[in-house]
Structures are given as C-alpha cells and as structure tokens.
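**Protein record**
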Amino acid sequence: MRKKNIFRDPESISKKNTSTRSGSVRKNIRFEKELLKEINAVAGFGEFSAWVKEACEQRLVREKP
C-alpha cells in the first residue's frame, strides 16, 4: 500500500520540511540534461536558482490574464 503524499499542499510542506524558509517552499523538479547544461552556461556558477526564479516571473507576467 502506497503512503499518502503529504507534500501536495504548500502549507503541509512548510510544516513537514525543515529546510523551508519563511515565505518560501522547496520544490524538486527535473530538468533534461541538455536544458540544464544550457541554463548553467547562461546563468553562471551559483546563480541557477535566481535565474530560474526570474524566468518563472517573466513567464507569469506574459501569461497572467
């Protein structure tokens, strides 16, 4: 029998995951190797998270109704 996924709700993540920060939540996502290689080449060493967050924000601005 499979365990229920306790991480569906962001609120439950912040209660269960000790690596969360106030106002943010850790999410694990997969990237294709080639895409990750391209992002790292453009973003620069140590800037991956900031680059991905900015890309997400830009897309939200474009796609928000």
Remarks:
- The radius of gyration is 15 Å.
- The helical segments are 10-16, 33-43, 48-63.
- The longest helix spans residues 48-63.
